[in-house]
Amino acid sequence: MAVTPKIELSGVTKSFDANHVLKGINLTVAPQESLVIIGTSGSGKSVLMKCLNGLITPDQGSIKIDGQEILGQGRAALEDLRRRFGMTFQFGALFDSLPIWENVTFRLRHQQALDKNEARDIATQTITQLGLAASVIEQYPAELSGGMQKRVALARAIVDKPEILLFDEPTSGLDPITGGVIDRLIIDARERLGATTVTISHDMASVRRIADKVAMVHNGVIIWAGPAKEMNESGVPEVHQFVHGLAEGPLTNEKPATSPAKMATS
Amino acid sequence: MHGFVQNIGRTALNFLAAFGRIALFSVTAVRWIFTPPYYWQQLFRQIIDIGYFSLPVVGLTTLFSGMVLALQSYTGFARFSAEDTVATVVVLSVTRELGPVLAGLMVAGRIGASMAAEIGTMRVTDQIDALDTLSTRPMQYLVAPRLLAGTICLPFLVLVGDVIGVFGGYLVGVYRLGFNPSIYLARTLEYLEVSDVTLGLVKAAVFGFLIALMGCYHGYHSGRGAQGVGRATTNAVVSASILILIANYIVTTMFFGG
Asked: What is residue B142's DSSP assignment?
């Protein structure tokens, strides 16, 4: 019997005015699978990821989680759905005005009315699992290095044990060693939680470490998807160029990125 | 000629569209003010930021405005021997007009800019999206407490500003123009009515709401990068200042009719 995909997208399209970012995305992710989405800047990867947890509503198509359609549901259903997701953003998106312990336990505190001591204990436990010192919880995001911020963002994403983890360029801006550590933490977190993960990455070393499956987005469509180990033999010129980081080839990097203001949801 | 008419039409449509967006934004935000959960910590932080930290700038502005007003009205009224009305003119001008408008404009510069910059930065660094992913409504967490704090704090600031402004007039009246202190104080209170102070406070509440609304709206819809946040900040201050002057006339007219 076929296993129901954890995530299933069919014919997903999204445009911002005349800019057609997604032109019919079809993709499945199996339970506990690690999918990595690759593609040039402005190809629609971030928009695609934001569609998965309802930050952006697609114009057309279907997105199913565990076989349940999520599009067209009300705000309450969307919020219930989001509790099943954890997400990290490219630049961390930690709340500047809050100390680390409040950042990590933000959802728990607001959803479960945890008191401060409980929240501090949970934050300490989570960030020490990710290799940070316990004293960090009283610091503010601006006081931490980029690598530490990424770990705190990861802690915030996994603290309430979500079923699905979304990572938007988790190793961007990090040195290779710290990037390797973050990859290791992502793999550990996924195995510990039994979570399904979707990651956007440009870092091919990272892709090879964390991916079970790779999908390449180009011009708003998936041009190749398959097991990570088959990436080098895809036979698709764009994938070959991207994977090997070649300047010459069919891919150009001239497409304008989508305006965040137009992506804003209320 | 055709292009000229087209431009006028386009500008009018853009204006109406912007008005509609702001109206929708404010209705949504006001709805969240009255919907649980309530973010008391956020509200408290905003009250401290808007109310407490704006006191020096509002105090200094109204102090010197009251002082200048006393000097100028003395100069004018001396020309037709009405110098003894200076205290009355100062107190009525400060409570009905100068206190709320000057405090509003100063707070628009300080708080409107700060709100737009903070929320705009949160927008461009994905912190607003992060709130959404953490099952927290950004309008309820970020905007509603700021609107409520702005509406609550401005009347208190104006009340303090009124007292300081009148005191400024008193200082000049007594120590520069030679008025008898007791007579100056008696004249200050003689024609002052509760409705004068109320009018100022109603204006202040409206201004506080408008300042927070413009700060939040422009920050929330900030464009990308430092330039986008900078533009949002400028727009917040300019639009709040203009709206304060327009609202000032409207509220005055409403009370004037009564």
From this structure: I
